[in-house]
Amino acid sequence: MFQKLIRSEAALRRHSEAPFAAERERYLQHCADLGATYATLRQKGTELLWIARLLDKNAPQGVSAEQLEEVVRRRTSVHKGRTTAQRVINIARPWLRFLGWWREQPIEVPFQGLLNRYITWMRDERGFTTESVRQLQCQAKMFLQWYAKNRRQLSDLRPADIDHYFASEGIQRWSRISTRNVASALRMFFRYAAKRGVCDGRLANTIRSPRVYALESLPFAPSWSDVQKILAVTLTAARHDVRDRAILMLLAIYGMRSGEVASLRLDQLDWQHRKIRLFRLKRRQPQTYPLIPSVAEALARYIDTVRPRTSHQQVFIGLNAPQRPLTHGAIYRAVSKRFRALDIRVPHRGPHALRHACAARLVADGLTLKEIGDHLGHRSTSATRIYAKVDLIALREVGDFDLGDLQ
């Protein structure tokens, strides 16, 4: 691998004769197989040469965070650039993990066994989606970490402790809706724990949620003109713009959820019949849409010219090595940066804002709530009712109604 990256005989000798040459070369080949560019491999190779010289000869027995900090200190004493320290860490740690030399810092999670069983129960017995399991696990984990500070068992947990958690952790941080969601998540966790004999079975019923009125707020949708501005700035040849344009159109035109975009596979695009087949997460059933020309063009351009060559079947792949399918967080960042760049002011700047914009557009076009709910993949029309509040044309008709005719 060194010979592919280095042309100078002197430089090739330096790389080959320095410590851990075989381990460095093997890792660089691994990065190349994942799609790393020539420039990236050159940078990794140069930095790994420095790191290898600064590592202790006993590195194969394990490298701790403290030892890596010492490498960083010695490296920055030679090169004092602002980004040197972070670059050393970003290159050294994946290399050490690849070799199995990195000593992970033990992260102590209280009641980990119970939490693991709870996750398995939600996934295997209740059949929750991956995102639902993640969110419910996160709420339970945060409470357990907070409670563990008192070094008490869950059998000693009392309603006053739960009240104190909401008062101390939620004040000035959680909205009423967030507080309701936390309360609901903890009720489920305590019911599960009670059935396993871990805590008092009456605890779950003592948790009260704040009152949240149905349809009390407006959907946080940008205007359709703002959506058009976001799409317009992606009409370039830049790789990220080509990929993000396809993502943005799926969110804004089909009202897809970020999880549905992330999980979209190549075999769900039927080019011959101009169809796109989705699996709606909430409905838990497939749904077929026509693949409209503008979206088909954006997807085809991304897949043909930008999408990395990979064995992954997901449509959207990270453009930088290691090239893996995009996560929910990556899609959120791709969308939110477009809102920030154009200074579009809406309460939320993530993928769901574009889903709301899609619904508002359908309302303005005169579709019924049933038709809108079907398009968005809602399980019932109750989830779609909030969009009746943005039907400004219908509201104006009510406002123009002359009550005098009724006298």
Question: Would you spell out the secondary-structure blueprint of this structure?
Answer:
Elements: H1 2-5, H2 9-17, H3 21-33, H4 38-54, H5 65-78, H6 84-99, H7 112-125, H8 130-148, H9 159-170, H10 176-195, H11 203-206, H12 224-232, H13 239-253, H14 258-263, E1 269-270, E2 275-280, E3 285-290, H15 293-305, H16 328-342, H17 351-364, H18 369-376, H19 392-399
Helix pairs in contact: 3-4, 4-6, 5-6, 7-8, 8-10, 13-15, 13-17
The N- to C-terminal Cα distance equals 90 Å
List the helices and strands in order. HHHHHHHHHHHHHHEEEHHHHH
Strand content: under 5%
CATH superfamily placement of the largest domain:
Intergrase catalytic core
The average pLDDT is 83
Structural class call reads mainly alpha
Characterise this structure:
This protein has 407 residues and is mostly helical. The protein folds into 3 domains: 98 residues; 95 residues, DNA polymerase, domain 1; 172 residues, Intergrase catalytic core (hpI Integrase, Chain A, Orthogonal Bundle), CATH 1.10.443. Helices cover 57% and strands 3% of the residues. The protein is built from 19 helices and 3 strands. The chain has a 3-stranded antiparallel beta sheet, with no helix packed on it. Helix 4 crosses helix 6 and helix 5 packs across helix 6. The longest helix is centred in the middle third of the chain and has 20 residues.
